[in-house]
Amino acid sequence: MPLTYYHLDPKNEAVKKFYGKIDIQFAARFLYFNKKGIVQELIHNLKYKGHQEIGSVLGSWYSEDLKEIRFEVPFDAIIPVPLHKRKFKERGYNQVTTFGKEIALGLDIPFEENILIRKLYTKTQSKKNLLGRSENIGNIFDVKFDETHHHKHFLIVDDVFTTGATIEACARALLKIPGAKISMICMAMAH
Fold it and tell me: What are phi and psi of 116, to 5 degrees?
């Protein structure tokens, strides 16, 4: 498996993608994603063929790696990148849920899937270029929070990181919470 080991490098490529855009405490990707490679096949099977166990296996595996940095970067909750209600109904599940839940279990922190919400339905981002993704993502996320969420460190989880537009939009929404800190991880990063 093409592992990135980004969790061990505080100045990795994932972190650099956000320089000057948004304040990210920690960012990492588990695997490298190559066209027609094993990771693409795994994520395709997870996302489009209902093999949610792939997310569970990857999340369990990666949580072991993340335990190495847990005390340096203490997370308060894991937040999955949400699907719009319509997309959830079409697919029947959110492909990052099992991944995020296994990481939450491994790190012994809450998995919070009701704080971040997707307000607008958008077509798949996978075939769009950087400009198309950035224009499309805009302000499609919002947050539902109360005082118990203030001053928390949220770890956003997603499947594949390409331009960072989705994560940036999620982070901007979560930063509406007073004192929030944001970190993020993805199953894979386009290589």
Answer: -95, 130
Beta carbons within 8 Å of 70's beta carbon, 6+ residues apart: 107
What is the model's pTM?
0.90
Burial class of residue 131, CB neighbours in 10 A (0-12, 13-18, 19+): exposed
Q: Are 105 and 63 in contact (CB under 8 A)?
A: yes
| Calculated CA dihedral for residues 173, 117, 11, 41, nearest 10 degrees | -150
Mean pLDDT of the region 166-172: 95
CB 156 within 8 A of CB 1: no
Residue 158's H or E segment, with its range, is strand 153-161
Distance, first Cα to last Cα, the chain: 13
Q: Vertex 28, ends 138 and 8: CA angle to 5°?
A: 155
pLDDT digits (tens, 9 = 90+) for 14-33: 899 999 999 999 999 999 99
Confidence of residue 124 (pLDDT cuts 50, 70, 90): low
- DSSP-derived letter for residue 126 is T
Q: Helix or strand or coil: residue 114?
A: coil
